[in-house]
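I keep forgetting this: the sequence line spells out the residues, with the fold written below as integer tokens. I include a record here:
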Amino acid sequence: MENYTVKDIARPSGGFAMLAVDQREALRLMFTAAGMKHEDQDLTNFKVNAAKILSPYASGVLVDNQFCYKQIVEQKAIAPNSAMIVAADKFIPGNGIPVDSVCIDTEIDPHKARENGAKALKLLVLWRQDEDPEQRLEMVKEFNQICHSAGLVSIIEPVVRPPRVGDKFDREQAILAAAKELGDSGADLYKGEMPLFGKGNSAELLSAAQKLNDQINMPWVILSSGVDANLFCRSVRIAMQAGASGFLAGRAVWSSVIGLPDTELMLKDISVPRLQHLGTIVDEIMASK
């Protein structure tokens, strides 16, 4: 059995232009806010259609077990030139938010995922300064072993949250602390948050992204949650100039079509060109490195 490597989820340029459709209750909230039908099947239909329409332009597509993994496999929704990445994280709601804590999803069999065409698994890791770092590191270690036992690529996604107790929270410092803790944890790819939400001037952003790069001892990409879709292209450019190798993003690609009529047509007219443009940015910067 060959072991997949990060090259198997990258573009020919070596950069990553990956699409996320693994949002769960957060997507339902988006549908609800837009006045759309938001039953489970509505979410599944959107995810499968997004995978079918957008995967030809993505080096990988991240899917979730709750709403679309099985359906995407059955319908062969991901283009042959794109790699399937399966979210192996179970979201636990609480305290009024859809994701209050996370554990490894034991329903995901890595060997079966590989048989189904997966080349990588992804794990969300919530980072709070007042929670035990050893527990996080142990979870990541277990996740890496699960991935590597099946020859799959291990992608970790540290996302920072305010502490459970007290209200002091410096997001930018937390992002750096999370990267310092988990950036050399044996995973194959680090999916990180964009410093400063991608706002501010380019020099500030570049400096912040370079500080993040200094903490990560593996290839890394940025996610788009929290970044204005209109600023995301610039965020990818700056993060890559600082040392990142691309992106794994959902909202920046497709969130603007939610609530519009003719969703499939809007995915083709709005989201495809956006994803193509992002892929071009990735290739350009990889070529200049």
Observations:
- The first helix runs from residue 25 to 33.
- The CA atoms of residues 86 and 279 lie 21 Å apart.
- The chain has a mean pLDDT of 97.
